[in-house]
Amino acid sequence: MTLILDPDDPTGWREAPGAADRERADEPRGAGHAASDRLTAGLNPQQREAVEYRGQALLIVAGAGSGKTRVLTHRIASLIDGREAWPSQILAITFTNKAAAEMRERVEALLGEAAGGMWISTFHSACVRILRREAEAIGLSSTFTIYDSADQRTILKRIIKELDADTLGFTPASAQAKISKLKNELSDVETYARNVNTNDPNDVMFLEIFRQYTRRLRDASALDFDDLISETVYLFRAFPKVAALYQRRFRHILVDEYQDTNHAQYALIRELTRPVEPDVVAELDAHGVLVRGMTDATGAIPGASLTVVGDSDQSIYAFRGADIRNIVEFERDFPGAKVVLLEQNYRSTQNILSAANSVISNNFDRKDKKLWTADGDGDKITGYTGYSAHDEAQFVADEIEALHRAGVAYRDIAVFYRTNAQTRALEEIFVRSALPYRVVGGTKFYERAEIKDAMAYLIAVANPLDELAIRRILNTPKRGIGPATETSIASFAEQNDLSFRQAMRAADGLGLGPKVTKAILDLANLLDAAAAMLVPSQKGIDEGTNEGASKVSEVLAFLIEGSKLVETLRTSRDPQDETRAENVEELLAQTKDFDRENPGAGLVDFLTQVSLVAAADELDDASGTVSLMTLHTAKGLEYHAVFLTGLEEGLLPHQMSASEPGGPAEERRLFYVGITRARKRLYLSLAMSRAQFGEVSVAMPSRYLQEIPDELVDWKQSPGMANSRGGSQPRALNARRGFGGGAGSGGGGAWGTRDRDLERFSVTKSAAPKTEWANRVTGTVRDNGDLTLEAGDRIRHTDFGEGTVRQVTGEGTKRIAHVAFDAAGQKKLLIKIAPIEKL
Ligand SMILES: Nc1ncnc2c1ncn2[C@@H]1O[C@H](COP(=O)(O)OP(=O)(O)OP(=O)(O)O)[C@@H](O)[C@H]1O
Ligand SMILES: [Mg+2]
User: Fold this and answer.
1) Whole-complex ipTM
2) Is 256 a catalytic residue?
3) Which of 131, 606, 724, 779 could tie 731 with a disulfide, CB 3.0–4.6 Å?
């Protein structure tokens, strides 16, 4: 085993530390100075207690906006400021890289100096760092590739095809989900094989898929996202001496958003907080690792102190294996743990908090806690019912403009939704209104095909074993290497126990045509030449630096040139290819930035950084734009004004979760997370009809809306929705008809159906229909009754003006008029509720 120690850990050097380092390392630490007043000023007593507590385990449970993240930040600063810990002895885990960067900034601001060597990162980043250093121990190349979800599916697709597993109903997505779930539970192929039901063909097939998948990743020296965590846990369990280096190093471990950790992450924390046993301490000592002054009376190095903060009401990642029990059972797992409760909220107005409280109180199985603020009620919440997604989006855009005119910066406004598909209407309207906005997440830059192509060139250079990367670019751009050739290279590799890349070099002997053979060899040569550019000079090798090696941008430029990647796109006839060429050039520009910002870093560092970019990392506070994002991405963030859109049954709760056990409760927590992001203004909106999967359908308001007390919300409707037949229909009738669909079905119409659903699926305590509430939202909803329309009829629409009906399709409440408007062009309208009248 090699002991590679941390260059940024002043106590960790094995060989000849600089004199200054040695001096610093010998200074006593852990003297237990009280945190300086400066760091606790402005904290409430419970927050201060949490910052100053110095025991082994500390759990901070508190509702949204009560200062949990703030306490973590102050705690880190106070440990360093009080000279109780070196920055390098801190490991803080956040949920996104953005949160990590923010926390580092705040700690350094509190300390008034840079605190190098501190590890503040996500679980995944921390594990990549550890694994790149220790890869050898588990037989992995330190240049291993990280496979994203799309890569996983590509591999699974191949495996499923080869095994004919689709006949048993396996899809890449289903296999991926199952593998991910197992890995999050730290169950590997062998464990699964031991428990498999050999009489069940499905189980047997899945085992084979899992086995092949594992083997292929291994052969390619690749890890998927879940592996990053589980492999680190295996590493620590199998190599106690490697684990000891990190257990010794990290004296204080702090975890934010603990409620969303899964079992593997929990196990990792357990490993990191174990004490180092005396025999291992002795071995470290023998290797020159500084242990003096760190051991207790028994000769062991005590386990690190652990602080976790979380809010079980904000647990929204059960679908990714997050285990709420981790927080509930913390006290059992860490006996003697101190628990601090924070109650006061510093983020939102009381009206917003009251709405959040009353929504979340409908979940069973939770500790009741009420958020409160000393800052007053604030404005009422604004509710809006639009007749279509576009109408809803227009409302959002208008309100944003109004806020902006009143002095609220665009960057302090966010629009949330449940699914990415909902951005379309919002974007259309925002573009039309010239509103500066930014979609966080969505189709990410690095997920574009052309970017993945360019990245595959880089990956193939960094990791010659990565078959997925090389096969992706084998014929991209087109060089006449078809699928049959690809297959013969693959089987040649298989038969001769070669990697795909080695097999390419033997192309001469495969009996292929001369042109194809040359194309294959040219590609192999191009990649080899690029790899040669990465070798440092002799001086660099001697000193263990990258000196003399080409920069990432130089290597990429060389590959783009040699492969004609951009050239081919530029000369293509597909108009989209011009944009694709620009995107690849944008990537090149990014590598230049990377080179400039990270002197001495290499290709693998760049690839790691790209792999770890999480959705929320694209947020840029200084950008002066409105942020659009999913509710999941919104976690931990706060904005002056927040718009929660698409609050309809089927979207929230999402139809996929409505029938899952615990689904509606988790969706409610998601709603709660959304509400509690708002500081001053909260807007709740929905659309009466929404086009989804190419079909327009009538929507029902989200069941969660009626859990908010009426007096907190001012409901407005679209002007186009007031019934044009001037209130001739009594409100009660409209209410009973609800949002369509249920009318005439007896037993209370739509609301009746809804409530039965509630009983069946959710853990809602009281599902009694709130007719009054229903009246408020649906009372003035336009209802055209059974307005008869047929082709040739002339109509007038509130927004689109006059037009001619071309066709009527659909039945009953779902009848759709296809109308050619004189000025506005072709539109499809849901006859029941569209703001139209027959002329
Ligand atoms: N004692 C305090 N005095 C003034 N402001 C505070 C105090 N504590 C927290 N805040 C502010 O309240 C807001 C919410 O704090 P923070 O983000 O730490 O809460 P949180 O509990 O982590 O929330 P979430 O559950 O959403 O992650 C922040 O703007 C923070 O600066
Ligand atoms: Mg927080």
Assistant:
1) 0.99
2) yes
3) 779
Which residue has the CA at smallest separation from atom 8 of ligand 1?
A: 67
Q: Say if residue 506 is exposed, middle or buried (CB neighbours under 10 Å; 0-12, 13-18, 19+).
A: middle
pLDDT of residue 734 exceeding 70:
no
The yes-or-no answer to whether 42-136+228-342 and 351-440+621-721 have a common fold is yes
Can you give the pTM of this predicted structure?
0.78
CA of 348 to the centre of ligand 1 (A): 10
Q: Any idea where the domains of the chain sit in the sequence? A: 42-136+228-342, 145-220, 351-440+621-721, 445-615, 793-838
> How far apart are alpha carbons 782 and 720 in whole angstroms?
8
Provide the 10 A C-beta neighbour count for residue 7: 11
Which class in CATH covers the domain with range 145-220? mainly alpha
Q: What CATH architecture does domain 42-136+228-342 belong to?
A: 3-Layer(aba) Sandwich (3.40)
The yes-or-no answer on residue 257 being catalytic is yes
Mutate which of 66, 670, 680 for ligand 1 pocket (most atoms within 8 A of beta carbon): 66
The single residue of 369, 418, 677, 832 carrying the catalytic annotation is: 677
In 3-state terms, what secondary structure has residue 22? helix
Catalytic residue chosen out of the listed positions 11, 69, 247, 676: 69
CATH topology of domain 351-440+621-721: Rossmann fold (3.40.50)
Ligand 1 contacts (CB < 6 A) are: 42-44, 47, 62, 64-70, 311, 314, 346-347, 636, 638, 676
Please, which residues bridge with residue 804 across strands? 794, 820
Mean pLDDT computed over every residue of the chain: 83
Tell me phi and psi for residue 57, to 5 degrees: -135, 135
Q: Which CATH entry fits the domain spanning 445-615: 1.10.486.10, 2.30.29.30, 2.120.10.30, 1.20.1440.60?
A: 1.10.486.10
Q: What is the pLDDT of residues 743-796, one digit of tens each?
A: 333 322 232 222 322 222 222 233 333 344 444 444 444 567 778 888 999 998
Q: According to the annotation, is 478 in a ligand binding site?
A: no
